[in-house]
Amino acid sequence: MGFYQHHVFFCLNQREPGERQSCNSCGADELWAYAKERVKALGLNGTGKVRINKAGCLERCEEGPVIVIYPEETWYTYIDKDDIDEIINEHLVNGRVVERLKI
Predict the structure, then answer these.
(1) Distance of alpha carbon 56 from alpha carbon 24, whole angstroms
(2) Cβ-based neighbours of 86, under 8 Å, separated by 6 or more
(3) How far, in Å, are 12, 40, 58, 103 from residue 61 at the CA level?
(4) Domain 6-101 architecture
(5) Residue spans per domain, the chain
(6) Beta bridge partners of 55
(7) pLDDT along the chain (103 residues), means of 10
């Protein structure tokens, strides 16, 4: 196993107005902070567990906002805290892919 069981990258890219969509324009920063707090509250963070990270552009902003979870290389889109909770509970805790959010 690597240093983390799951490494979650949130695209927080912010483009200039008038350019193509960016994840941060869809609330990615707020939901990154929520995911980080939620994982910590559940005791899932730390070495050998889960790491929630900011990322620059992941080049899938039109499908976003997006996250990618490694080592599985699973890509998700999400809308709100309920989606983030479902990804945490299903994927990170129970090891099941959330098909409805997968891209």
Answers:
(1) 10
(2) 98, 101
(3) 9, 27, 7, 11
(4) 3-Layer(aba) Sandwich (3.40)
(5) 6-101
(6) 11
(7) 90 82 89 98 96 93 92 97 98 98 97
pLDDT of residue 1: 58
Task: Write out the DSSP string of 3-58.
Answer: S-SEEEEEE---PPTTSS--GGGGTHHHHHHHHHHHHHHTT-BSTTSEEEEEES--
Q: What is the pLDDT of residue 78?
A: 97
80 contact partners, CB below 8 Å, separation of at least 6: 31
How many Cβ atoms sit within 10 Å of the Cβ of residue 56?
Answer: 11
At 42 the three-state DSSP class reads coil
Number of Cβ within 10 Å of residue 30's Cβ equals: 12
Helix (H, G, I), strand (E, B) or coil at 41: helix
Q: Give CA angle at 87 (86, 88), nearest 5°.
A: 90
CA 46 – CA 59 distance, rounded (Å)? 28
